[in-house]
Amino acid sequence: MTTLIRAEQLTRYYGKQCAVNKVSFSLAKGQILGFLGPNGAGKTTTLQMLCGNLAPSSGQVHINGFDMLTQPKLAKRSLGYVPDTPPLYKELSVHEFLRYCAQLHDMPKADITAAVKLAESRCGLTEVTDRLIANLSKGYQQRIGIAQAIVHNPDVIILDEPTVGLDPLQIREIRSLIRELGQEHGVIFSTHILSEVQELCTDVLIIRQGVCVLNSRIEDLPAEQSLEDIFIELMQTPSVGDL
Amino acid sequence: MNMILVIAAREFKTLFLSPLAWTILAILQFILAFLFLTQVESFTMLQPQLANMDNAPSLTDITVTPLFGNAGIILLLVTPLLTMRLICEERRNKTLTLLLSAPLSNAEIIIGKYLGSLGLLALIVMLITLMPLSLLIGGTLDFGKLFANVLALLLLVSAFASIGLFMSCVASNPTVAAMGAFGALFVLWILDWSAGLADKRSELFEYLSILRHFQSIQSGLINTADLSYFLLFISLFLLLCIRRLDKERLQK
Asked: Do A87 and B96 touch (CB under 8 A)?
């Protein structure tokens, strides 16, 4: 298995406050990593550091073997990121927007049309392709956010709470999309829904107050305990700092 | 280079998706055409007297130079409105993430955005240039002087746009960005007014004044000092923009 993401001792301070403290993990092709933690635990901060949107205070990120700090362009080439608010230019049509995203990732001109078509059909956007993004519902906008991240066929896809605010049907569609993506790519996604992780992921990582408290394969978890029990237990144990 | 053009093209096209670009083009054209006609009118009135003078100002001096001077002042008001949303709005709508997580350097993002907005400004300058060219139907023009005027106005709006982009990088809100850019430009414009007071002349202020360099090129004197003033000005502010975008990743 090829390692797609290697994060070493990632640390991030906001002023004096430590948001993420020495988090290390790796992700290989075919893995889907569920990223769990209570609100404010540092999930988004960690994901932003992985995508090069935020520089870590210390620690390193390697994407596909390229260091995010010294070779950001090569590292970002194999990265697709869906932030918690999908970054959409609302004055464009779905088609125009995805074309622009493909261009930004320096795809060869000849491949762009096919790539945009594929991303649209994978995310169920084919029938709205000519509509303005501003006029589409939140569910569609979320899907455009995902289409934007997969249009250039990256090795790593990072999703920050992709199923928030969607209806049960859309959640199921997005989950099956993530499962499909997980077969040929490495996927990381953060969420609050524990059953989602149990159902979809091959690996789970739980952080609390910026510290990684669990990093394990789903199948290695004790079978008699549900993920929810484990999560609540981890959240209730006092941290080393508190003691 | 390729990426810069992709961003610039997107920026330029986006301007025309909102009424903003069309409104600016229409209103500018109307105001400047009115001023231009006034100049042409005064030339026809002065023509008999000019015929008897030695070294009389030509048609170009009486119509073109004031037209481009007025255009400079009006663009000083308009450019901050064009540039205010460039980075600021992206940051507010959280679309900046799209550019920051794409394989682009900050320099490519900034220069792309800059060239995109400069595209519209160049289009405005081109439309303004068409007005004096229409005089060729019944008269002759001094093309050297016309070229100097076009060059001066292009350099001027390029400098305006670089400050506007910088303010858009710094400010958290487009209105603040526009106000900041307008303030900075206005100060640079009036800086050499103190030169009028004979004993209070300041060489530094005179050099910094953007108006002085603009008028010097406009008069047909294209010299390296003025050209390098504008080039230094533009590169300084673009560099500051890139630095500011770097900072985005470091702190929050």
From this structure: yes
CB–CB of A180/A195 below 8 Å? no
Please state whether beta strands A186-190 and A32-36 pair in parallel, antiparallel, or not at all (unpaired): parallel
pLDDT in the model for residue B159: 96
CB-CB neighbors (< 8 A) of A105 in chain B: 102-103
Q: Cα distance from A237 to chain B (closest Cα, Å)?
A: 31
Taking the C-alpha atoms of residue A63 and residue A159, their distance in angstroms, rounded to an integer, is: 15
pLDDT tens profile B78-129? 999 999 989 999 999 889 999 999 999 999 999 999 999 999 999 999 999 9
B107 burial level (CB within 10 Å; 0-12, 13-18, 19+): middle
**Chain A residue whose CA is closest to B9:** A100
Element (H, E) at A80: strand A79-82
Are A104 and B95 within 8 A, CB to CB?
no
Residues 6+ apart with CB under 8 A from A83: A44, A47, A48, A145, A160, B94, B97
Asked if the Cβ–Cβ distance from A81 to B97 is below 8 Å, we say yes
> Nearest-CA distance from B163 to chain A in Å?
25
Distances (CA, A) of A153 to A79, A146, B100: 9, 12, 18
User: ipTM, 2 decimals?
Assistant: 0.87
For residue range A78-113, list pLDDT tens digits in order.
899 999 889 999 999 999 999 999 999 989 989 999
